[in-house]
Amino acid sequence: MKSICKLFALSIVVLAASCGNGKKDDSTISTDVINVPSTATGKPATPGSAPEITFNEAKHDFGRITQGEKVSYSFVFKNTGGSDLVISSAQGSCGCTVPTYPKGPVKAGEVSKVDVVFNSEGKSGLVEKTVTLVTNCNPSTRVLTINATINVKEE
After folding, report:
1. 102 cis-preceded (ω within 30 degrees of 0)
2. What percent of the chain has pLDDT over 90?
3. Are β-strands 70-79 and 111-119 bridged in parallel, bridged antiparallel, or unpaired?
4. 3-state helix, strand, coil in the chain (%, to 5)
5. Exposure string (b/e) for 8-26, b if CB count within 10 Å is 16 or more?
6. Distance between CA atoms of 80 and 111, rounded to whole angstroms?
7. Which domains, ranges and CATH numbers included, belong to the chain?
8. Residue 72: which residues within 8 A CB-CB, separation 6 or more?
C-alpha cells in the first residue's frame, strides 16, 4: 500500500511540474513577427510603408570563362518601399559563390548592391549557382542567380 501511495504522490509531482508556471517562453518568436512585414525598427509596417527590394536584374550570365577564373558581378537594387530595408543574410549555394551585401539599413529610395564572386576552380561545363537573401521585405527571401559556361584549360 505504501508503494502505491508513493507512486501516486510521485505522479502528482510530475504532473504539476509538467504544467509549468504559466510563464511565456521568451525564446520563441511570435508568428506575428514572421507573418507581418516589419520596418528596420521592428515595428509592424503599415500598408505602403514596408521596405521593398527591386533589382535591376536577378540573373546574370558570365558567358564563357576559363576553369580556375574568378569572376564577379554586382546586382544593383533599390529600396522602392517606404522604410529602411535590411538584408540580414546572404548565402551562396556553394562555397564557390561568395556574396557581399550592405550590413546596415538601406533607406527608402536608396540604391545599393549585392556583390557576388564566383570561383570556377574545379568546375566545368554549364554551371548555375544561386545566392539567397533574407530581408525584412515581403516575401522575406530573394534569390539571385549566376551562370557560366566553363572551359577546361588545355595543358
Report:
1. no
2. 66
3. antiparallel
4. 15, 45, 45
5. eeeeeeeeeeeeeeeeeee
6. 9
7. 33-151 (2.60.40.10)
8. 115, 116, 117, 118
The pTM for the full model equals: 0.71
Contact 116, 146 (CB under 8 A): yes
pLDDT at 39: 56
Residue whose entry in the numeric block shows the C-alpha cell 533607406: 107
Burial readout 81-117 (b: 16 or more C-beta within 10 A, e: otherwise) = bbbbbbbeebebeeebbbbebeeebbebeeebbbebe
For 15, residues 6+ apart whose C-beta sits below 8 A from its C-beta are none
* C-alpha cell at position 127: 554551371
pLDDT tens per residue across span 71-113: 999 999 999 999 999 999 999 999 999 999 999 999 999 999 9
Sequence-distant (≥ 6) Cβ neighbours of residue 65 within 8 angstroms: 71, 120, 148, 149, 150, 151
Nearest to 76 by CA among 39, 40, 113: 113
Question: What beta strand segments (E) does the chain contain?
Answer: 53-55, 59-66, 70-79, 87-92, 97-100, 111-119, 125-135, 141-151
